Amino acid sequence: MTDPNDLVADIEALGTKLLAARESVNRRFIGQEKVVELVLAAMLSGGHALLVGLPGLGKTMLVDTLSTVMGLKPSRIQFTPDLMPADILGSEVLETAADGTRAFRFLEGPIFCQLLMADEINRASPRTQSALLQAMQEREVTVAGVHRRLGPPFHVLATQNPIEQEGTYPLPEAQLDRFLVQVDVEYPDRDTERDILIATTGAGEAEAVAVFTADELIAAQAIVRRMPVGETVVEAILDLVRACRPGEPEALPVVREALAWGPGPRAAQALMLTARARALLHGRLAPSVEDVLALARPVLTHRMALSFAARARGETLSGVIARAATEILGPGIEAAA
Q1: Positive or negative CA dihedral for 99, 105, 107, 112?
Q2: Which long-range contacts (CB under 8 A, 24 or more apart) does 53-56 make?
Q3: HSE-up of 150 (CA within 13 Å, CB side)?
Q4: Region of 101 on the Ramachandran plot (φ > 0 left; ψ -120 to 50 alpha; else beta)
Q5: Pick from 60, 5, 39: nearest CA to 281
Q6: Which residue, 337, 287, 63, 290, is CA-closest to 319?
Q7: CA 58 – CA 53 distance, rounded (Å)
Q8: Beta carbons within 8 Å of 171's beta carbon, 6+ residues apart
Q9: Closest CA relative to residue 85, chosen from 148, 150, 130
Q10: What are the tens digits of pLDDT across the range 29-56?
Q11: Which pLDDT tens digit goes with each residue over 233-273?
Q12: Do residues 298 and 69 make contact, with C-beta atoms less than 8 angstroms apart?
């Protein structure tokens, strides 16, 4: 059994290292501390993140910076309508040796990396999008009947533009559920935009520095899973997730009236892991209900769907989640999220 004192020392040491990592990322990705926190929480939990935001908000820069700071081998795929699964996974080619013999050799695709940036993921066809499903969940791909392992670590940070819907294919529910969190990247406020102007239009720009290695990230993920979770937090997670399923007896009236379907067990798992990671990022030894409140929207939004009637009334998923979380967990979601 792990000595509690050793666990406390490990958590405190990791917290110091994470503070340095956040500072390094924020030097380049200015004024988006909550976005950085959510993406780091997803990586500490061993999961993937979907970044949703308008063009020019620095989503690509964030992924590039994270690969440097976390010491990961990066790869990038620009998703387009003509992209094929083999362009992601790789393919076998027939080679002829000097003696005339022929044999197939597998050429690895860009998915064989540690941090994959899937840029504008909703521009690819469903067939190509599905090529990521096995990799994101099982950390392996199957090509020509052969299973090939990925990582560890292996993380997908995908970007999606919410306004350019022409020529796009909405992500299927099964793939959305593979993303641990959905991170909404908003416009910066005036002061932040001023800082961005000054920092990025001069003779030089701030450089990110490596803080972690791949092995250290794997060790950090193990520490997150060892963090204790109180019974109050476990019950809060179960109460919230089950209250957001319109078919459950525990479903709230607002959920039954507004949702076509709700989150599955993977949402509860995501809340449990990311709540631990957020507590660690805030220098605490265990998660609290506040962490569950703060992560309700990022974890649940892409795992729910409004009914047709609710869309016609102008309801939003954010509004439904806020009302459900306030009723189940108490007031404070607006301040915590």
Answers
A1: negative
A2: 53/159, 53/161, 53/162, 53/184, 53/185, 53/186, 54/161, 54/162, 54/163, 54/185, 54/187, 55/161
A3: 28
A4: beta
A5: 39
A6: 337
A7: 9
A8: 50, 121, 122, 129, 160
A9: 130
A10: 887 888 999 999 999 999 999 998 877 7
A11: 999 999 999 999 988 888 888 888 888 888 989 999 999 99
A12: no
Residues 6+ apart with CB under 8 A from 111: 75, 77, 88, 89, 90, 132, 135, 141, 150
Question: What does the mean pLDDT of the chain come to?
Answer: 86
The Cα–Cα gap between 92 and 196 comes to: 45
User: What DSSP character marks residue 293?
Assistant: H
Q: Which domains, and CATH codes, for the chain? A: 1-226 (3.40.50.300), 229-337 (1.10.8.80)
Sign of CA dihedral 83, 88, 94, 98: positive
Q: Is 337 exposed, middle or buried (0-12, 13-18, 19+ CB in 10 A)?
A: middle
Report DSSP state, residue 6: H
The answer to whether 84 and 128 have CB atoms below 8 angstroms apart is yes
- Are the beta carbons of 271 and 234 closer than 8 angstroms? no
pTM, rounded to two decimals? 0.88
Cβ proximity of 193 and 153 under 8 Å: no
pLDDT given at position 300: 93
Give 182's pLDDT tier (boundaries 50, 70, 90).
Answer: very high
The angle, 0 to 180 degrees and rounded to 10, between the axes of the packed helices 33-44 and 265-281 is: 120
Quote the tokens at residue 109: 């695709």
Rg, the chain, Cα only: 21
Q: Which residue has the tokens 């380049």?
A: 28
